[in-house]
Structure formats: C-alpha cells, structure tokens
Amino acid sequence: MAETTPKLDELVQIDYRPPETPWMDTPVEFRRGTFCYSAAAKNLEYLGFPNPRDWQPSDEDWKLPENWREIILKAMEDRLKKFRSFRLFMDICVRCGACADKCHFYIGSGDPKNMPVLRAELIRSVYRRYFTRAGKMFGRLAGARDLTIDVLKEWFYYFYQCTECRRCSVFCPYGIDQAEITMIGRELLNEVGVNINWAVEPAANCFRTGNHLGVQPHGFKDSIDFAVDELEEITGVRVEVPIMKKGAEVLFIMPSADYFASPHYYTLLGYFLLFHHIGLDFTVSAYASEGGNFGLFISHEMMKRLNDKMYREAKRLGVKWILGGECGHMWRVVHQYMDTMNGPADFLEVPKSPITGTVFDHARSTKMVHICEFTADLIRHGKLKLDPSRNDHWNVTFHDSCNPSRAMGLLEEPRYILKTVCNHFHEMPENTIREQTFCCGSGAGLGTDENLEMRLRGGFPRANAVKYVHEKHGVNVLSCICAIDKATLPPLLEYFVPGVEVAGIHEFVGNALVMEGERERDTDLRGTPLVKAAQAEGDKEEPAHA
Amino acid sequence: MSVVLALVAVCVLAALGYAGGQVEGWRWIFGAVLPYLGIALFLGGIVYRVARWASSPVPFRITTTTGQQRSLPWIRQAKLDNPFTPAQTFGRMLLEVLLFRSLFRNSKFELRAGPRLVYGEEKWLWLAAMAFHWSFLVVFLRHLRFFLDPVPAWVAALQSIDGFLQIGAPEILWTGLILPAALLYLLARRLFQAEIRYISLFADYFALCLLLGLAGSGVLMRYFTKTDIIAVKQLAIGIVTFSPVVPASLSGLFFVHLFLLTVLLAYFPFSKLAHMPGIFLSPTRNLPNNNRAHRHVNPWNYPVKVHTYEEWEEEFHDKIVAAGLPLDKE
After folding, report:
1. Which of A231, A285, A521, B82 has a beta carbon 3.0–4.6 Å from B65's, enabling a disulfide?
2. Half-sphere exposure of B113 (CA within 13 A, CB side)
3. Domains in chain B with CATH codes
4. Angle A84-91/A178-190 helices, nearest 10 degrees?
5. Residues of A in Cβ contact (< 8 Å) with B312
6. Largest CA distance in chain B
7. How many C-beta atoms surround the C-beta of residue B244 within 10 A?
8. Which CATH code of 3.40.50, 2.20.25, 3.30.70, 1.10.540 fits the domain covering A388-538?
9. Which residues contact B239 (CB under 8 A, 6 or more apart)?
C-alpha cells in the first residue's frame, strides 16, 4: 500500500452530502491516489495517437493543441452521427436518480459526480450547449455550459473514475449505459492526446508483441514450459501444450496474465490439466497471446486493431473454432464486438465439443466459446473424473465479473462448475451478485497503483459483500473469471478482508481433476496442503480456513 | 432557485392562458390557433426527434443482460431479462414500457458502522412513476369523451371504473387524485433528497410544475368551479373536425388548462419528456442478446491499421527461432 493511502477507518468516513456549490461551479481537484498518470509519449507515438508529449493531469497546463475545442466538438458530432446509443443517451435522461447510488465509485467516495447521472451530465451539458437549440439559446438555464479547460479536466477525472461496469444501466428505466458514454468520452479525450498510461501502454504492447504485458515469443514459450514442468511436479503427469500448431482443432486464447501473473497462473495450470484430461487437440499462440483488450478502454478503433489478431491467427493456423479463457472485458469484446468488427469468421466451423458432441449453437456465428460453457458441458456429460474433496480446504464464493454478467449473462455456467468441483460454496448477498454484481473497482484501465485510493473506494462494495460471507460462512476464497479481478482483488481484500484469497474457476477444476497416471497429491495447484480425507470428514460442519 | 424559476414560469404561462380567455381578440388565438400549433409541434417534433435518433445507426449490439444467457440447453435461460429471440426481446420491452421493469429493481444502500454496507428495497420511485404515468394515460383517455361524439362505450366504462367509489357528486375520479399526488411526490423527492436536488435542472422542475398546473387546473374545473361542458365539447370537436369554434361561455380557468396543455404539447418533443418515444430505441434494451449466433453488421465498419502475423514474425524472427517455435516462412 502506498504511504498516502488512507487507513481503513479514515477511508470509510464517507460524506454523502453534496457540496455547497452547484456542480457546474465545482472544479475538479486532482488529489493524489485518485487519478491515473498520463500516457507516455512513446506509447502514443507507437500507436499513432495524436499529441504525444510529457504532461501530467496534476499539471496546470495540459499542453493541448491550439484548436483542442474544435477537435473535441468535431469528434463529438462524428460520434453523435455514428452511435445511436450516444445520441439517445444525450437526450432522454430524466435525472430520476435511480442510477445514482448504484455506482461503486459513488458508494465508495460520496462524490456526486460519481453518480452515473451526473457523470453523464458532464458531457450532456456540453452536448446541449453546442448541439441543441435550447442549449444555444438559454445556456445554463437549459442545463448547458461551455466546453472549457476545466470541463475537459473534469471529463478526464470522472471518465477515468468509471470502470465501464454497466451496473447503472441495469437500473436505468431507459437502459442508459454510462459505460457507453464513458467509452465515447474517452474517445473524445483521446483525440487531443489526453489518456492514461495504464490503458495505452498495454495496448501498445499488445499491438506490438501480441499481449498486454509485452511478453515476446521466447518469453511466452518459457512461461508455458514452466507451467508444464510445474504441473509435472505437482501431479506427476506431463501435459503437452502445443504452441502455434497448424491444423489443431481448437485455438485457445487466454488473457496474458494467466501465464505471467499470480494468482492467474494457477488457473492456467487448471486449463492445461483439463485439456490433457480430455485429450483436446488444441494450440496456443504467441501472436494471439492476449484474450483481453485494453483497446476497449481507449476507443472503438483501438479495440478493433487489437482484436484483429484473434481471427487472423485462427485462420492462419487453420483451426476449427476458438476457445476463450477466463477474462471479463475480453468477453465483452468477443461477445458484443468481435464478429461485427472483424468477422464474419466464415473460415471457421460452428463450435462443437469433440468430447461430448455438443454443438455450441449460441456461438455459431462468432465461433468462440467461453471455457466455462465448455467445461460445464463436459461435467454435465460426465466426462471429467473429479474429486471435489481436494478443494475441501477452500470455502468458496463467486464474484460475477461485470462484463460476463451484464454484457453476456454467463451466470449459471461458472456456478455449476464450482458446485461440482467444490464442496463448500456460499453466495454473497443478492444485491451484490449476478446482474447486480459490484465491480472490483479497478477495471477499464484503472488498476494502477497511483490510483489506489480510488480503487479501494470503488472496490469497497465488493469487499464488503465478501466480508459478509467471510464472517458468516467462513468463506476463505473469492473465485472469479476475470484477469483484472485476479490482479486487483487481492490487494482490495487484503485491505478490507484479510484472509480471503482470490482464485479462478479452473484452478478449482484443476485441483479436483483426477488425472490418469497421477501420483497422490499433497497440495493443490497453488501449493496449499490438502485436507486429508479423515480430517475433512470431521471438518464438514465447519470447513477449515486456509 | 431552479424550482422557483420553474414555478414562476408556469405561473406566467397560466396567467397568459387566463388573459387569453379574457381579451376578446385573443380567444381565437388561444382557443384555436395555438392548440393547432401545439398539436403540429407535438406530432412534427416527435417525428423529427425519432427520425433524428434513427438516423444514427446502431453499430454494435450492446444489450445489457440482466439474467442468464441462452447457452447450453439444460441451463434455464432468463428469457425476458436476457432475450435471445425477437419475440423475447418484445416481451422485455413490454415489461419495460408497461411496468417499468428496470425501475422496479431499484434499491438503496446504507453505510453503517463497522463499516457495513446494507442494501434495501426502494420501490417508492417506481410506485410514483407507475402511478403518474398510468393515471396520466387514463386521464388522457377519459378526455376522449370531449373529442368523440357519440362517446364510445369503452371511454364511458373507463370513466365509471375510475370513479368506482362514488363519493358525493360529481363523482370523485381516482386518477384525478393519484396524478397530482404522484407529481407532488416526484417534486418533493427532488426538493428534499439532497443528491437528487443536486442533479436537478430547471427542466426537471419545469416539467413537473407544468404537469401540476395542468392537472391542478383540471381538478379545479371539475370539482370547484362551474365549467360549461357543452362548450368544451364544442371546442374539442371543432378542433378535431378542423372547423374550430371558440364558444363564449368557456371560463378563464378552462383557458389556463388549455394553454398549459398547448405548452406541454409543444415542449414535449424537445425536452426530456421525449424519453417516452426514446425508450423504444434504446439499444441496451431493444436488442436480443444473440451476438455470437447472429452477426450484427456495423454500416460504417472501416479498415484499421493492424499488426499482421507476417509483420510480427518478421520483427521477432530471431526470438521465434531461438525459442524453437515454428515459423510461417522457413
């Protein structure tokens, strides 16, 4: 934790009373710990983005181009013409306030501009001023205001205090989606070179090397080899992971954190055990080595540029279909954008499980299946030999990641898997799961350390729900299917609920899988000793804490 | 401040309407010319507004899913919260438009000591919204008795249902009570809930005050003053048959009512009240979540700069070879 991070009791002294001054007269203050640093010039240059330079949000002068206002307004007009969502969402909000307290950043900060309605008004007020007659004529009386440097700074601060989680859009009576407004707001800022490094650097890395972390082909190979060796050590079974094997049936694409970060890594081990267990003819690629897509957090165009590698590589390798790993925003892109942007994938076949024969009809056009859909189907058909008691030292709850829940509806598949491979599972309160799930507070490119205080504030509702099941049911692990979650929930929980770990679903699958020829396992995939059978019997009433 | 301005604005409008009924030369303008203008602005405005929204394409299918997707056959799909077919989507929209399904989900949170966040039901906003919109619809339909001759049986039936608890004469119509009550609740909410007051604009108060003025003048006419119903009907039928007459016996209060309605009609399409047609076009609600089964086409999809495999292999050639990974070009 950074030195400036407030202590827990300070952090939760949240004042929900709005300021004395009207919001239009309350300029933004760049307080340390609550904003992200600017994108480095080299990254903007590499991607061909405008206005690369050295600057920081806390600077007085942002070194914008002379005609920055015209650029923004022109871009705004362009987006109004291109996106019905944007045009409509600028017009039809009645400010009923149903969304107001649904945002995790509002709950955690009490800042009224984190109410989705007001976050949207930041840009709506400018829309009214320049694009509606009433706004041009009546100005402030019509809720309109000039686009000034202060307004631009406010946009930056609050559009990068939105994780595009879409929780507000669940509650909006008109389905207004703040994520859409944030995405377009960020696109506009991007046009004048105002962006954050934590989003742009991964995008630049991904464009070049194929993944956000900038892992080059040999590094990729090393990581995979290391995982294979480690699996042999734990299980005694040597699995095979073909890299860029032409003619494989399935191309498997996972977020790069799975092979380069912890605790994601244990999920990776789980995938590989599973594929070996069922004898899947698959391959992974060092080129399409990223499931995630930080382009989503920058602009629609950048999203498309990064996503391109998936179909391109599937085509080159001649696979039949694509299987995707555990990642949240990756699945927003794959499910809602990929086919439209880079399809049609007519060179692929309708996904069919070679093990169960199940045709994944719901993915017949995009030709990409979520690993939880794939594994749930395997379990349903009895194709996996499982020993759930190997997860008895884990008392599990499940965190629905924003995008799989609200941009897809992948709710039951992971639960079905978890309930099969684990004996101890408890849900968090219903206002905090499924379509009402709370964000980790660090999505959409905000998961950087300089922004830690804001991340903790945003993650507070999630952590609070975890604390509830931790105290009530002794839950000691929070499972999830998102790489950003796996990276950012551990520090969040360490702050609010020490003693609860974070894990992927396929880590538990890997723990439970009884592999042919394996030796007796003493530990799970992360090296935690297993609860022995006799001991587990006695502990049934009160599961052990790890 | 905004609320005072809005109140003043509506009072000025009401006074203007009243004056319109008093000054001989204005009666024709306020009783016939402006109502036609109001209707024209309303219809033309709605068409313009919807056409303008519709002129921007829907590049991506960005359904907000609020339930289980359709995936494997043995997993129960939430057909209305996560529709896969057009019919299911229609069902979702029906729930949204008729019952305000999303607003019904509304909740509230509280931060307690501990720290502990707790969530509770919050149905008042939904209830007030339902009460307002549905009673407005009933009031609107009841008014058809002025415009249609003979009065259709269903309009008469609606009125008698509305007044099913007859208390005194004239009978009390429930909607006439519920409508202003709901509006007053919505206004009170804006005034007394700090965060809602903070986000409220002049336009928010103006719409509420205008509707309150409209409803209030109606209630006054029905229960507290004498209104020449025959004359009102003459005017109404005159308007719909394009042969307007403005009978001399119409009261000043009636002109207030009529003018506020005229203003509402003219204001409606160009304000936030356009949410009524807007909801039908909302892409997070009116599209099925079948993205992976049916490709959505973006009409302005354009080629972008990408990093091809060939470029990638060229850049990392030596490292690929050193790692023993296969090359495309040997």
Report:
1. B82
2. 0
3. 2-322 (1.20.950.20)
4. 110
5. 209-210, 287
6. 99
7. 18
8. 3.40.50
9. B32, B35, B36, B147
What pLDDT band is residue A384 in, cutting at 50, 70 and 90? Answer: very high
Q: pLDDT tens digits, residue range A420-467?
A: 999 999 999 999 999 999 999 999 999 999 999 999 999 999 999 999
pLDDT at A541 over 50: no
pLDDT of residue A545: 45
User: Which region, left, alpha or beta, applies to residue A210 given φ > 0 means left and ψ of -120 to 50 means alpha?
Assistant: left
> What is the rounded average pLDDT of the residues A122-134?
97
CA–CA dist A268, A227 (Å, integer): 8
A324-358 pLDDT per residue, tens: 999 999 999 999 999 999 999 999 999 999 999 99
pLDDT of B223 = 87
For B112, the token pair is 């307690």
Contact B37/A at CB under 8 A: no
pLDDT at residue B185 tops 60: yes
Of the pLDDT bands very low, low, confident and very high (cuts 50, 70, 90), residue B160 is confident
Q: Which token pair is A410?
A: 């992948």
pLDDT value, residue B255? 97
**Among residues 59-98 of chain B, which lie with CB inside 8 Å of chain A?**
59-72, 74-76, 78, 81-82, 84, 96
Q: Which amino acid is at B234?
A: Q
Cβ of residue B308 closer than 8 Å to a chain A Cβ = yes
Q: Give A402's contacts in chain B (Cβ within 8 Å).
A: none
Partners of residue B59 in chain A, C-beta under 8 Å: 82-83, 300, 340
B38 CA to centre of own chain: 18
Residue B100, C-beta contacts closer than 8 angstroms, at least 6 positions apart: A173, B126, B129, B130, B133
CA distances from B69 to A410, A450, B74 (A): 6, 37, 12
Predicted model pTM = 0.95
What mean pLDDT comes out for the span A363-368? 98
Q: What share of chain A is helix, strand, coil (3-state, %, to 5)?
A: 50, 5, 40
CB proximity under 8 Å: B 232-271 to A: 270-271
The secondary element (H helix, E strand) that includes residue A64 is none
Q: Which residue in B107, B81, B76 sits closest to B95, CA to CA?
A: B81
Q: What is the ipTM of this complex?
A: 0.95
Residue A203 CB contacts under 8 Å (≥ 6 apart), including other chains:
A43, A47, A212, A294, A295, A298, A302, A306
Nearest to A501 by CA among A535, A527, A521: A527
Backbone φ, ψ for residue A529 (5° rounding): -60, 145
Q: Does B191 touch chain A (CB under 8 A)?
A: no
What CA–CA distance (Å, rounded) separates A188 from A300? 11
Residue B322: which of A218, A334, A408 has the nearest Cβ?
A218
User: What are the backbone dihedrals phi and psi of residue A181, each rounded to the nearest 5 degrees, phi first?
Assistant: -70, -40
Domain boundaries, chain A: 8-30+50-194, 201-380, 388-538
pLDDT value at position B171?
76
Q: What number is the average pLDDT over the span A379-388?
A: 98
